[in-house]
Structure formats: C-alpha cells, structure tokens
Amino acid sequence: MSTPSSLASGPEGPHALRPLLDTVLDALSEGARVRGGPLPSGGPEAVAVRLRDAIGDVLPDQGDPDALHDIVRALAEGAADPSDPFCAAHLHCPPLALATAADLAASALNPSLDSWDQAPGASELEGLVTEALAAEVFGTAASRSTPPPKAPAAPNATAAPSAPSALITTGGTESNQLALLLAREAHGADVRLVHGANAHHSLPRAAWLLGLPEPVVVPAPAGALDPAALGEALTSCAAQRLRRGSAQPGALVVAATAGTTDAGLIDPLPEIAALCAAHGARLHVDAAYGGALLFSDRYRDRLTGLDAADTVTLDLHKLGWQPVAAGLLAVRDPHDLAVLHHRADYLNAEDDTEAGLPDLLGRSLRTSRRPDVLKIAVTLKALGRTGLGRLVEQVCDHAREFAALVHDHPGFELYAPPTISTVLFRPAHTGDAAVAAVRRRLLTEGRAVLGRARIDGRLWLKATLLNPHTRPDDLAALLKLVEGNTPR
Ligand SMILES: *Cc1c(COP(=O)(O)O)cnc(C)c1O
C-alpha cells in the first residue's frame, strides 16, 4: 500500500515503490504511444499548451491522487526520445534500462556523498569506481584482456599513493571547470587557456568564471586542432609575455578535444602532448564524447596520447548510456586534488578525520551529492569492458553505414567519413537556408531530431548516432525523410 507520504527507503520502501513503479511504467508507455514519434509534433507553442492543459494547477489546495500518472504521462508525451532512431541531434544518449534501474536505487537509498555518515557504502563504491576509471584513462589498469585475480576489495589501501584519481561530476561542463580550477591552483591565477576553435563552449566559459586571462583561440578550420597552429600560438604566447618584461614565460593550459561536439573529431593528441611537453604547458583533454572509445579494442588506439594529459574529462551520459548525470574528471597526479580540501566541522571535523572517518568534502565543489556512481558501477560490472566496447563499436558502425548511404546518394554531400558516431551531411546543390529549414521542419512536425553544425563556413546537418540497436533500415529511412522534406 502506498500513500503520497510513504517513504522510499526503509523496510516498507519496496512495498510503497512497487505499485508506484507500475503507475510510472504505464504512464511512460501511454505517453510514448500518444506522442507516436521521436518528439512531440507542433513545435514549442503546441507542446507547451498540451503540457499546461495536462498539468492544470501546479500547486492545488488539495492533492491530486493521479499526479504521478498524469505528470509522467504528460512528460513522456512531450519528450524527445533518444532511443528513437530518428532522434539523433545531440550527445543525448538513450539510457540503459539497467543503469536507469540502478538510478532508482540511488534515489531510494539517497546517500549523499558529502560526508561518510550519509554514505558509508556509496563513498567506498565511489572510491573503487573512480580509481578503476582513472586507471583506464591513464593506461595503468591492471589488465585489459585478462581479468585481474580476485583480491579482497581494498584498493584505497593497496593503490600507490600517486595512482591516478577521478572525481564524479555532473558532466563535461563541471569537469572542464574543475580541470581549469586545478590548473589555476597549480600554476597561478594568470594561467592562460589555449584552446581550439573546435573546443566545447564550457571551456572559455570556465576561464571566464575562474577569472583567468582571455583565452587564446587556435583556429580549427577543418574541425580539429592543427598542431602547427597550436605550436605557433604557444610560441607567440611566450614571446608576448617576455616582451612585457616578465621573467617567466607564463603558464599555459592547453585544452584539446577527443570527440568534438560538432563533428566527433579527435584532435591529434600525441602531437599536442609533445608540444605541451616542449613548451612546459599543462594539458587537459576534453574526452567527454570520445573517452568511451577506451572500452573498445577496435577504437582504443584513436585515443593514443590521452595518457599524457594532466586531466581528462569523460562523460558516461554520452557514449556510456547512462541517465544524466554521469561525468568524470580523471586526474593523473592525485596531489593536484589537494587544493579541493575544505573543512566544515559538521561534515569532516578534524578529530573525526583523525579518528579514521573518510573525508569526502574534497571530492567535489558540491555539498549534497547524488551517488551517480551507482549506475556507473552497475553498468561497468554488468557489461564489462567487452560489452561496453561492443556498444561503442555498434554506434560507430552505424555512423559508417549512414555515411556510406549519404556518400552513395547523388542528392547528398558527406562532410567526411566519421571518426566516432557523428555524421555531418547536407542536401547537395542547396544553400544553408535549406539546411536550416529542413531541420526545423522535421523538428516542428515531430518527425526527426537532427542537429546542425557550422564547419568550413557552411551549415551541415548532424546525425549523432548513439542508439546501439538502430537498424540499417532506420538509417535509410532517416535519409529518405530528409530528402523528402528539403525545400527546393
Ligand atoms: C557534451 C560536451 C561537454 C559538456 O558536457 P555536459 O555533460 O553537457 O556538461 C563538454 N565537452 C564536450 C566535448 C562535449 O561533447
């Protein structure tokens, strides 16, 4: 029996949740059926009207027993469904049922990772998972092909004190901010960010937030960072500082991208790492999208050079099939994290810490914090490297298949063979206005969600393929849909 004030945790929690789950699952099915496509039709105004009508009074005097059903149903009806093969605009993945179920447990248990006494097990789980993923990123994982011997789980005690570490974040934006914060604390407040024009917008924004000098933007006309242009930028930054009479050339932090948001391109990491080493610059790699290639034997080599980075952003709510949020910042030298140490007597009193209670406050800038690690842990364990690698390979295969369809079609132009799972294409012999129009028409009619990217001065349609279960027929149908809706 469940009442609106039943609790999710405790001995009665599962009994209260079970009927509510049935309600939620029914409402999800109904909403999706009514929507009948990858997103609701009619555009923003029509969708807003339908949602407002379905919700009615947001805060009625008397509670409404159907609120759970009605609001979930309305939201499902108004959702863009990333599992629909025609929903392929953004790095917005369809979450695994497994990870979503684990996220329910996270909500029910509600551990908060700001102090050990709110999250005794979850804090240990976070330690285990972040160490394992940091080892994966920096190539120090015990073994990639053979399972490690089953040892008692105590990596906190056994890992070398300088083993790489990682923080769980809300995503690439927070990871990039933390990376620049660590750079600032390591090198001083005048550390200058050098990034490609292809970098994610959150990087210059983080520089602004942290009060860093205006970033240096290296042109990336072909979509990836050009090492020659980066070398010139690094040389000229140093020369400028010296001209201004500074004894030191001034610290620089280079941000490279492994999986650009627009085209899914990977900057040439080995060359960039070598330039950073030669110029004494710190290196951050934003692998929010591409980082999961590490799980695939077939694609791991594309990330060669990643392990030279000081910090690496990884987003498992992109390739990784997690519900948002599931971000990580991997940090090669864990001593860099010492600057996040912070004392609040009610969370990590000195005598508690001395008495052996783990101090969690330095693991994030947030205070109350969800155990996003739970769904990640379940996914890694249930699929293994092989299972995750296979999903990565499936979406990369789809991108290649879609690119081949585009390439072979006289009515379309392909930007380039895909590097990961993004395909840029456009109707041939039309201008940018037609490209923008077909995207908006499909969006408004609720028929497909495609992205857009401006690259080499032209506007392209973007298909970001993240559904591992998409079939070749779906891809052909998507292309046909675009063809039939392009204004001529
Ligand atoms: C998506 C993305 C981000 C931002 O990540 P969020 O999880 O949306 O905050 C940063 N960098 C790159 C390259 C991305 O693709």
Automatic annotation (TrEMBL):
Cofactor: pyridoxal 5'-phosphate
Residues annotated with N6-(pyridoxal phosphate)lysine modification: 318
Biased composition (Low complexity): 153-166
Classification via Pfam families: Pyridoxal_deC (PF00282)
Residue spans crossing the bilayer: none
Keyword check for Lyase: yes
Annotated region (Disordered), positions in chain: 142-169
Alphabetical list of Gene3D superfamilies matching this protein: Aspartate Aminotransferase, domain 1, Type I PLP-dependent aspartate aminotransferase-like (Major domain)
Signal peptide span: none
InterPro entries registered for this protein in UniProt: PyrdxlP-dep_de-COase, PyrdxlP-dep_Trfase, PyrdxlP-dep_Trfase_major, PyrdxlP-dep_Trfase_small
Protein origin, superkingdom: Bacteria
Keyword Lyase: yes
Alphabetical keyword list: Aminotransferase, Decarboxylase, Lyase, Pyridoxal phosphate, Transferase
One of the GO biological process terms: carboxylic acid metabolic process
GO molecular function per UniProt: aromatic-L-amino-acid decarboxylase activity; pyridoxal phosphate binding; transaminase activity
A GO CC term assigned to this protein in UniProt: cytoplasm
Family note: Belongs to the group II decarboxylase family.
Protein name: Aminotransferase class V-fold PLP-dependent enzyme
